[in-house]
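Expect chain and fold; thus:
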Amino acid sequence: MEGTNQTTVTEFVLLGLSGHPTLETIFFVLVLWMYLVILLGNGILIIATVYDSHLHTPMYFFLGNLSFLDICYTTSSVPLILDSFLTPRKTISFSGCTVQMFLSFAMGATECVLLSMMAFDRYVAICKPLRYPVIMSKGTYVSMATGSWITGGITSTVQTSLAMKLPFCGDNVINHFTCEILAVLKLACADILPNVISMTVADIFVLVFPVLFIFTSYVFILSTILRIPSAEGRRKAFSTCSAHLTVVIIFYGTIFFMYVKPKSKDSLGVTKEDLTDKFISLFYGVVTPMLNPLIYSLRNKDVKTAVKSLLVWSGEELKKLSSL
């Protein structure tokens, strides 16, 4: 860059779906609707796990954390996405981009670790049921959840600070809906190899290790279930972890597809690929958090009963208020 004029970047332009105005209108309605469903569905789950004494167990404590995490994750990005669909100039300040990047990365990393903690909970419940109350004591599962949040926060702090310390002196157009860290790194006018190495190490700890831990847990879980003599016993045992397994498959399946799908080499293919990447990103960032409470509600009798009780109670309270 020597011998050229350098201008320090003070804001970024989010490209989003700028080249597709019709899609912007359609996706504004869809994303807004899904965001409201996320707030409602996860909010109801949080309230149910807090106020229903039958749900005061490690599994539902983790579920409450997952719901809160999904609300935080989507709230850190969806308002920005919706705004980009409406405004002609889709800009975000440097500091705003830093905060948004930190929150999104932290929530994503935390969810990876939290899902592995939930897998361990299911492993103990199915493989060591008699020791479950001792192993999964309140101090243990609260520490596990806290550790997940701390791990995500520290990882995001390191990666975000390393990324935003880079000089940005040229192009400031981010080809994404939000300040996604890899999209931002592409704009740096300096060597990003240290950042790539750092992110690779972080991914090993918050993505690869949790995946291996979940996989190993479910190998033992399935092995234990298959040894249960009765078909009804096997069905009941599997039903206790089927919701978590479904969420894990959707969550990691989307991440896996984003990073391993083949890259296009021709210009038309690259354009289509960029659009596909953005749609996958929307699925990961909006659809998955919307599905989580639906999956747990539809596949879990305790949650369905608690939600129904909560809705009945809310209806009775509204009637009392309206009669005053």
